[in-house]
TrEMBL record:
GO biological process: AMP biosynthetic process; ATP biosynthetic process
Enzyme Commission (EC) number: 3.6.1.17
Task performed by this protein: Catalyzes the asymmetric hydrolysis of diadenosine 5',5'''-P1,P4-tetraphosphate (Ap4A) to yield AMP and ATP. Exhibits decapping activity towards FAD-capped RNAs and dpCoA-capped RNAs in vitro.
EC category name: hydrolase
Keyword Cell membrane belongs to the record: no
Catalytic activity: a 5'-end FAD-phospho-ribonucleoside in mRNA + H2O = a 5'-end phospho-adenosine-phospho-ribonucleoside in mRNA + FMN + 2 H(+); a 5'-end CoA-ribonucleoside in mRNA + H2O = a 5'-end phospho-adenosine-phospho-ribonucleoside in mRNA + (R)-4'-phosphopantetheine + 2 H(+); P(1),P(4)-bis(5'-guanosyl) tetraphosphate + H2O = GMP + GTP + 2 H(+)
Domain of life (superkingdom): Eukaryota
Segments forming domain Nudix hydrolase: 1-141
Protein known as: Bis(5'-nucleosyl)-tetraphosphatase [asymmetrical]
Cofactor: a divalent metal cation
InterPro entries: NUDIX_hydrolase-like_dom_sf, NUDIX_hydrolase_CS, NUDIX_hydrolase_dom, Nudix_hydrolase_domain, Tetra_PHTase
Length: 148
């Protein structure tokens, strides 16, 4: 049985971006783990018994980044499922896309993470060392560009 985790890819739009290039003003939230290789990742975590996947994504985001569901707008039409092995066991991670309503909302980390950054796509891809996460961030960016 695969380990199952869910999370949100969170972005904000900077007000300073020129209107013609709205997607240039998009930054993605990545958290640096305080364990293992200290990799950078969107907030995510394991599904608790009795919880549905989206509930897990919102709960984990609140626990790991201090963001309440009411501070986020879930972006319709985007959902990504990643499959990869962790310590020899299969893992499934499902991500949805959410925008912070106020780009100045404070991030409050749990002890699971030691740092956070808001990053433009290119930098987010450098920080997210795993190829499937880099591809997912690029896909999200294309999705957002296509909605402009």
């Amino acid at each position: 049985m695969a380990v199952r985790a869910c999370g949100l890819i969170i972005f904000r739009r900077l007000q300073s971006a020129p209107p013609s290039k709205v997607t240039d003003g998009i930054e993605y939230l990545l958290l640096q783990t305080s364990y293992g290789t200290h990799h950078w990742t969107p907030p995510k975590g394991h599904v608790d018994p009795g919880e549905d996947d989206l509930q897990t994504a919102f709960r984990e985001t609140q626990e790991e980044a201090g963001l309440q569901a009411s501070q986020l707008t879930l972006i319709e039409g985007y959902k990504k499922e990643l499959h990869y092995p962790v310590r020899g066991k299969p893992k499934t991670v499902i991500y949805w896309l959410a925008e912070v309503k106020d780009c100045n909302t404070a991030i409050k980390l749990s002890e699971e993470h030691q740092a956070f950054r808001w990053l433009k796509l290119e930098d987010a891809c450098k920080f997210a060392e795993y190829e499937d996460m880099q591809a997912t961030l690029k896909e999200v960016h294309q999705f957002l560009c296509s909605k402009e």
